[in-house]
What we know:
The complex is a heterodimer. By secondary structure, chain A is mainly α. Chain A has helices at 11-36, 38-44, 52-75, 82-100, 102-109.
Amino acid sequence: MTNSDAHPTNGAAAATLLATGLGGLVLGLLALAGDALPAVAKALNIWNPTGPLSGVTLAAIVVWLVAWAILARRWSTRTLDLRLIGGVSAAMILAGLLLTFPPFMDLLQGK
Amino acid sequence: MEITFRDAVTVIHGMGFGALLLLTFSGSAAAVYALSTPSSAWTPGGRDLTRLKIYFWGMAALAWLAVLAGAYVVYPWYRAHPPAGAVDLSGFPKALLMSSPATSEWHDIGMEWKEHLAWFAPLSLTAVAWLMGRYASALKDMRGVRNTVVGLLVLGFFATAVPGFFGAMLNKYAPVRGGANIVLMRGEAHDK
């Protein structure tokens, strides 16, 4: 057995990365939706002292954990194209970061 | 030397969790470098691996503590609405910042970005901690996984440093203050 044969497959890493990308994207999308749409902000206001932020972050965490669990279960024994999954995840994270940036939020809403 | 209860909690949130987390990034970078460089003979196992896992899970824990304390303890004090007609806004930091064009952007950009951006840190650092537990010994040979760890660490650093900067500036212009006074030390009034 060579040294590389002894290494685990990269599927679990791909699952972790893609789930983090999804969580970040959901965080950004919900932050924008909560800022743009009063009805969404009201729905996300699950704990009044913290306001819509409570729902935005809870939803993003749930999506992140559920996606991670599902992807890890499917991919943990597989070897995947981590470059492709890394690119997709990076794009989602970048989009999530941009969507949380207030001047970009305002630009999208035409403010 | 006194500090209010809200000041103390804000210090724990920003300095105790946030700033301590920022300090740990240098150690994580050194560990990842030592595990990745071809000339390194370090292959952690046994006690080394356990300590490495504790370190990275500790970073993730600090990130979670920072955002949870921020969002669920400090932020409600920050965004509390002043009663109608209130003149003294010192107990209402958001309203105080919004009351002047010279400070309103600290809220509109600083707090509005910080409150969301900071959550990328626990997500990415939890992922890093988990990846280090599984792949620490293989980072040297698995380039894709190594790039994933480094990328997530950079994201975690960005999502800690930027909110940390804005948190410090927000607290300069509109401190979260109030509650019982905690006396740290008694002194004497004097001219010099």
